[in-house]
């Protein structure tokens, strides 16, 4: 979209004491809409660079602690629900699509589409926070907290009594939902069309948080009962397959080791005894390494591969070890959630301006800038999800 030509609708801005006219959306210290757009674009990119440096420091801390205590990170990551993380990843990816679409609607002056897509992006953000609320409250209840507050007991993982963490997390959103409903009702009674048009999509946005809570509850409960049972059966089946593979590998190794001088392997071994036959020596070495890897000894090492919390050694579940992991987990995901809340704030600001039809083909910079910020927030989660949930 072109921002070169200024709109003919101008404001004199006599209050500023200027002797020139310009469109209402053009700040008085800019000469053209293009100059204003480029300046804003440079500013948002500088801001995003600082955000990358900020999160880069946390990713470095994660890498250092993981390098020093890989077994702790491997064990404690079993407590994170990959289903909830995967759902949130899909929700954020979809929100990036709707945000990019919203930028296009602002460029084409499709005000209804812009309002609808901004509301959809906001709803996705609320679903993300709702799922996160379930994840956080579940871990709070189990005592999986940062170092200093860590109180997880493997013998009694679910503490009896204690505060209702989920209610406390949901309380601000309950208040917001009630407030928006009252605002909508008052706007309808007063006949204020603008406030009604703003409040209506915000009702859907606030309700989306509770949709995320319901979705997270279903996935969390399914993961703790049926999923564990499924995992057990799968592990049993995998165990049978692994046992069969191990047996076959052991038989293969025994075949090689017991190969007599008359067999093909025995002949190769005798020929490899000649120091000048280096090619055959390398081939025998490769066969021995392949046999060792097929037996599983080169893969499993000293730890058993098992993706359940039952396999987590008890010595890891201490405040000084698991507590450090959950300190990093809450720090990284919590600050990311704060950025989501910040994005919700500016998206609501855009929604209000969209209802006022303030954006046009010459002035769509704010939507574009917020879109860049939102894509960065999504990108950070794309890194957080595999690092915290998947790498084991």
Give a nutshell description of this structure:
With 392 residues, this protein is mainly alpha-helical.
Architecture blueprint of SSEs:
Layout: H1 33-68, H2 70-76, H3 82-107, H4 111-142, H5 165-190, H6 193-224, H7 226-257, H8 264-272, H9 278-294, H10 297-300, H11 322-355, H12 365-390
Tell me what you see in this structure:
- This protein is mainly alpha-helical and 392 residues long.
- It contains 12 helices and no strands.
- The radius of gyration is 30 Å and the shape is globular.
- Mean pLDDT is 80; it is low at 225-250 and 295-305.
- It has helices at residues 33-68, 70-76, 82-107, 111-142, 165-190, 193-224, 226-257, 264-272, 278-294, 297-300, 322-355, 365-390.
Feature tags:
12 helices; mainly alpha; globular; 392 residues; 0% strand
Parts with pLDDT < 50 across at least 5 consecutive residues: 225-250, 295-305
Question: What's the assembly state of these chains?
Answer: single chain
Average pLDDT, to the nearest integer? 80
**Would you report the number of β strands?**
0
- Rg, rounded, reads 30 Å
Number of helices: 12
């Amino acid at each position: 979209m072109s921002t070169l030509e200024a709109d003919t609708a101008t404001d004199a801005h006599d209050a500023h004491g200027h002797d020139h006219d310009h469109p209402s959306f053009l700040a008085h210290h800019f000469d053209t809409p293009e100059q204003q757009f480029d300046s804003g674009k440079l500013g948002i990119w500088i801001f995003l660079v600082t955000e990358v440096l900020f999160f880069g420091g946390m990713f470095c801390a994660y890498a250092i602690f993981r390098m020093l205590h890989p077994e702790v990170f491997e064990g404690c990551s079993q407590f994170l629900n990959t289903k909830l993380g995967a759902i949130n990843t899909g929700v954020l990816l979809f929100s990036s699509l709707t945000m990019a679409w919203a930028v296009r609607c602002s460029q084409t002056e499709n005000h209804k589409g812009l309002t609808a897509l901004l509301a959809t992006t906001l709803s996705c953000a609320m679903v993300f926070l709702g799922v996160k609320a379930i994840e956080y409250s579940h871990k709070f209840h189990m005592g999986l907290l940062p170092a200093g507050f860590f109180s997880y007991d493997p013998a009694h993982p679910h503490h009896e009594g204690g505060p209702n963490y989920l209610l406390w997390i949901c309380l601000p959103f309950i208040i917001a939902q009630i407030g928006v409903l009252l605002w909508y009702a008052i706007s309808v009674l007063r006949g204020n069309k603008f406030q009604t048009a703003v409040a209506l999509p915000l009702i859907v946005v606030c309700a989306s948080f509770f949709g995320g809570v319901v979705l997270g509850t279903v996935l969390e409960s399914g993961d703790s009962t049926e999923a564990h049972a499924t995992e057990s059966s799968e592990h049993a089946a995998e165990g049978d397959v692994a046992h069969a593979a191990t047996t076959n590998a052991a038989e293969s190794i025994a075949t090689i080791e017991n190969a007599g001088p008359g067999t093909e392997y025995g002949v190769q071994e005798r020929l490899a005894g000649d120091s000048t036959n280096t090619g055959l020596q390398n081939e025998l070495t490769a066969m021995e390494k392949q046999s060792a890897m097929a037996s599983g000894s080169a893969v499993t090492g000293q730890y058993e591969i098992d993706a359940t919390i039952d396999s987590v050694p008890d010595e890891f579940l201490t405040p000084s070890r698991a507590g450090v992991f959950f300190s990093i987990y809450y720090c990284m995901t919590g600050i990311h959630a704060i950025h989501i809340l910040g994005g919700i704030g500016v998206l609501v600001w855009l929604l209000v301006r969209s209802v006022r039809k303030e954006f046009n083909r010459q002035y769509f910079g704010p939507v574009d800038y917020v879109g860049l910020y939102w894509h960065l927030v999504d990108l950070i989660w794309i890194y957080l999800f595999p690092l915290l949930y998947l790498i084991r």
